[in-house]
Amino acid sequence: MVLQTETEEKIVASAEKLFYQKGKAGTSMQDIADDAGMNRTLLNYYYRSKDQLFEAVFRKALGRFVPSLAAMLHSDISFEEYVPVMIETVIDTMIDNPQIPIFVLQELSSNPQRMPEIIREMGINPAVAMKKMASEGTLSVEQGIDPRQFIINLLSLCIFPFAARPVITDILFEGDNEAYLSAMKERKKLIPQIVKQIMMQNPSK
Amino acid sequence: MVLQTETEEKIVASAEKLFYQKGKAGTSMQDIADDAGMNRTLLNYYYRSKDQLFEAVFRKALGRFVPSLAAMLHSDISFEEYVPVMIETVIDTMIDNPQIPIFVLQELSSNPQRMPEIIREMGINPAVAMKKMASEGTLSVEQGIDPRQFIINLLSLCIFPFAARPVITDILFEGDNEAYLSAMKERKKLIPQIVKQIMMQNPSK
DNA sequence: AATTAGTTTAACATAATCGTTAAACGGATT
DNA sequence: AATCCGTTTAACGATTATGTTAAACTAATT
Predict the structure, then answer these.
(1) Do B36 and B105 belong to one domain?
(2) Distance CA A167, CA A173 (A)
(3) CB-based contact (8 Å) between B141 and chain A?
(4) Is B58 inside a domain boundary?
(5) How high is the mean pLDDT in each 10-residue block of chain B (205 residues)?
(6) Alpha helices, DSSP H only, in B139-176?
(7) What is the extent of the structural domain holding A19?
(8) What is the mean pLDDT of residues A63-90?
(9) Are the CB atoms for A172 and B152 separated by under 8 Å?
(10) b/e per residue A58-95 (b: at least 16 CB within 10 A)
């Protein structure tokens, strides 16, 4: 998995590009071979089957943003300190790989039964994460802020704008991709402000 | 389009279910026919081709949530008044059709060139929407709140939690679907609070 | 120069999918 | 009872996708 020949890299690069765009079923092995500029049989030589090639691509995609999620859920640092760092990391990752959110969410939505295995493999421990959240002083149900809702809000604000890129670009930015992108960069400063506000709220629950 | 035989309804119902779950390329006409309990040829009898059947399903999906979006962008009511209504509507729609966000976003991500036509057909006028936003007193760049960012935040908070359902359910709610669902209902009250806070902010820009 | 191991390709077999054509069915109308 | 029209089905042809097998090529080593 670590060592890859140049050819393997070319294959995965083309597979990523096409799977991200058209999905697994919508992409043929021939499509990938053409894009990589090689014979189709070669894909099977290196990756046995389409399933296994897809699996490699999917895992690689997961690996791009699960670590920062896992770090947030498990690190000893309090949310308050860690959140701004996490936001910057996630958004930068999204800017570099804007198609990953939909790709991953679509696959998980089709095959939700994959989640438990992925959680295990990626080293996420829901129970531990829950405990950590419960121990956060500023972030608790008693304070009027459910830690789960807090994380949902955080991820929503960071990830959704990329999943909805075409809609946002065409409706809110009249098709101007540059404007869209610069708005996304702006969000690196904007989201922490919002999050801080959410944390400081104290409704008369 | 308005009048549909019982058979047509069965076809669309099965097509929706399967297209939502496995996508266009991942679903065969045979799959749909089996699910609907009829012969495959019958699908072609009513919907000429797979493309046209998919198109019918896609339009129907769009029609479920574009109207409330369009209403928000165009109505004479100010954001401040309209937003809570819109949130409730959107979330209720999502609860009833949890798979639509990913389905639509995936299709638009694969074929972003479809956006202009969709915008036109759905009666959305980006220029008018921009003008409306600019005229909002409490919501302007001068006040420190970019109306575009505001809408992005609003949609993110409402829609993303449904697109990410499996992830959220398994990591944050340890697989408990009921808990997930009740959290989503809770968001109908939660999001308006957050949005109100965002609107009242006044950073030292 | 010959051999060898790794890489690349061409050709084949099997299976799946799509859309069409023509025939069968069924219930209402004459 | 026969006809007739909308509905449903069975069978066919063409195309495409996948994975395998066996052969060709290449470049390094003997």
Answers:
(1) no
(2) 9
(3) no
(4) no
(5) 70 94 95 91 91 95 88 78 88 94 96 94 84 65 75 96 96 95 96 87 48
(6) 147-163, 165-172
(7) 1-48
(8) 84
(9) yes
(10) beebbeebbebbbebbeeeeebeebbbebbbbbbebbe
CA-based nearest distance A197→chain B, Å: 7
Which residue in chain B has the smallest CA separation from A69?
B171
B42 and B124 within one domain:
no
* Distance C27 C1' – B48 CA (angstroms): 26
Q: Which residue of B has its CA nearest to A182?
A: B149
How far is A123 from A63, CA to CA, in rounded Å? Answer: 11
Q: Please, are residues A122 and A62 in contact by the beta-carbon 8 Å criterion?
A: yes
B39, B78: one domain: no
C-beta within 7 A of nucleic chain C, residues 42-61 of A: 42, 45
- Give CA–CA dist B204/A91, Å, rounded: 24
Tokens of A137: 């002083």
Domain count, chain B: 2
Q: Do B137 and B165 sit in the same domain of this protein?
A: yes
Using an 8 Å CB-CB cutoff, list chain A residues near B26: 23-26, 110
